[in-house]
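Quick one, probably user error.
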């Protein structure tokens, strides 16, 4: 199995893991349809892919908005005629201590990290059921497995993504595969919106030995390239030696 000619929708593809995954999949012959809010970045990524002989298209998408995500999936259908996989990857991580009561940030994480994934499932699942095949890949985290101070709400959203992925796997039967990709610290823009200087400084320190987003992209390709009867339920990839 290869990803050649597969049509893959990716959210949160304007930077970091989503971008690296779009670029790697396109190199391997997949047709990638990318979404995020920053159009300049989406345009640049799409143009680069297409100039290098790949196939890519974009649609400005806010995953919090159900219609936006439906439009993204429909854009893939209209452009390439099918949707083989969706990578529900968009996410935000404005870390803070709970006692700071950053309720807007809590809501943002719940909206993007949980509802965004659900909007992706709602948009893609009926299409995949009608096609008789599909693969839904969601981005979890090592924070889907353990909670650390300042990350209570973020980890809560990632535990939720893990639970939703597992529930979907159990319910979706033979037609639709489900994979949770759970990265450790990866060198991306995630957390650039952290306002507490100490927390931001701690993350900067961790980033010094972070994984490259390409490593996570490779794990997405691994899940996609398995034969029909093989279901990769989760790929947990983290830096060696971390507890
Ligand atoms: P980035 O910040 O580089 O990428 C996040 C992406 O999400 C961007 O493309 C951003 O695009 C998009 N995004 C944010 N909000 C929305 C929204 N409302 N609608 C659509 N797109 C949105 O970080 P990563 O690449 O690291 O993050 C990707 C995923 O990986 C996230 O789910 C994150 O939680 C997860 N993760 C990351 C880890 C890390 O250490 N980096 C570790 C574990 C998990 P735009 O601003 O243009 O909308």
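Nope, works fine. Designed sequence:
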């Amino acid at each position: 199995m290869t990803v050649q000619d597969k049509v893959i929708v990716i959210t949160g593809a304007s930077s970091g893991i989503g971008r690296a995954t779009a670029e790697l999949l396109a190199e391997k012959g997949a047709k990638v349809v990318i979404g995020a809010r920053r159009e300049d970045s989406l345009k640049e990524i799409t143009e680069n892919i297409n100039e290098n002989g790949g196939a890519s298209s974009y649609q400005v998408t806010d995953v919090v908005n159900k219609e936006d995500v439906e439009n993204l999936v429909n854009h893939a259908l209209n452009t390439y005629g099918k949707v083989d996989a969706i990578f529900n990857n968009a996410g935000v991580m404005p870390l803070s201590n709970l006692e700071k009561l950053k309720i807007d940030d809590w809501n943002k994480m719940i909206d993007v990290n949980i509802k965004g994934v659900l909007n992706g499932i709602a948009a893609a699942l009926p299409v995949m059921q009608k096609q008789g095949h599909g693969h839904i890949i969601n981005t979890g985290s090592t924070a889907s497995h353990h909670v650390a101070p300042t990350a209570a709400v973020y980890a809560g959203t990632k535990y939720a993504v893990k639970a939703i992925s597992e529930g979907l796997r159990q319910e979706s039967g033979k037609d639709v595969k489900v994979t949770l990709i759970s990265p450790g610290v990866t060198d991306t823009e995630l957390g650039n919106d952290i306002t507490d200087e100490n927390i931001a400084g701690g993350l900067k320190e961790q980033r010094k030995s972070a994984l490259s987003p390409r490593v996570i992209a490779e794990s997405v390709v691994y899940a996609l390239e398995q034969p029909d009867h093989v279901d990769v339920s989760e790929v947990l990839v983290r830096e060696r030696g971390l507890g």
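The helical segments are 16-27, 39-51, 66-80, 103-131, 152-171, 197-207, 213-224.
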